Amino acid sequence: MQQPLVSVICVCYNHAQYVVQALDSVIAQTYKPVELIVIDDGSSDNSQGVIRQWAMTHPEVQVLLNEGNLGYCKTFNKALALTHGKYIIDLAADDVLLPERVQEGVTALQTNANAGVTFSDAEHIDRNGQRLSLHSARFPHHLVPSGNVYKEVVSWYFICSATLMFTREVIEYLEGYDESLAYEDFDFWIRSARKFSYVYVPRVLVKKRRLPGSMSHRQYTFGSEQSRSTFMVCKKIMALNQTREEQKALDKRIVYEAWANFRVLNVRLGISYLILWIRNQRSLPI
Question: Which of 101, 176, 263, 280 is the Cys-Cys partner for 77 at CB 3.0 to 4.6 Å?
Fold first, then answer.
């Protein structure tokens, strides 16, 4: 019987040093069929030249090259419009899929009828590919939730975003990534977990590269666009919450984010969080 098609979108921005390894990791998957689309978001290094050269020996791969930088969310959505797969993987061009990643993801989603998203353990690596740590060293398997994880994703970060795989139904329901945001994962977790179940696979299936100056490293810095996007997602959470426990989870999130922003002198944003906290108290059910 024909296996369902899996679409992998590899988004590249100034990752000339790493993009070939990311693309090769898709080609090396044990699972077939896989559709690969690689899109460069107007890199200022030689990423586009590297991609063109690699694609010469992989004519089946769709290549998109933005003339200018559109931002991650817009770039992903541009490639998403060309996909045909039942399942989707968002692969950053500095990360690496292990050979069983797609097969494990398909199995997890097919054997859990209500699941829309699956995620796994990951190996964090440095710029040279050397192991730094396992994601599960900080978030042990027995503490990682599955099923309805909405309240948990509001409260704390436990998902390695590089390990996500989701159904087309999920991303169509969300109408793609929110292009008004500087980054996608927190918003994706919140909006998808409100409606769809998550399945955790306690295996290392992805190598997540940790680089200085990456988007995650800019989260809590002065004037960070990522921090502003996090605030916008917290406002969405207040509208999505349905129970007192979920509102308390948002309280916890707001306090953490306010403290983190005051610490790096994002004073206006910190004050905005305090105002949001007050509004959240007023919205709690009696």
Answer: 176
In the CATH scheme, what is the code of domain 6-212? 3.90.550.10
CA distance 284 to 227: 25
| Residue 231 to residue 218: CA distance in whole angstroms | 15
User: Exposed (0-12), middle (13-18) or buried (19+): which is 59, by Cβ within 10 Å?
Assistant: exposed
Helical pair 225-240 and 244-263, crossing angle rounded to 10 deg = 170
pLDDT digits (tens, 9 = 90+) for 212-252: 765 555 566 776 888 899 999 999 999 999 999 999 999 99
Percent of the chain with pLDDT over 70: 95
Q: How many residues does the chain have?
A: 286
Torsion, Cα 140 227 77 163, to 10 degrees, reads: -10
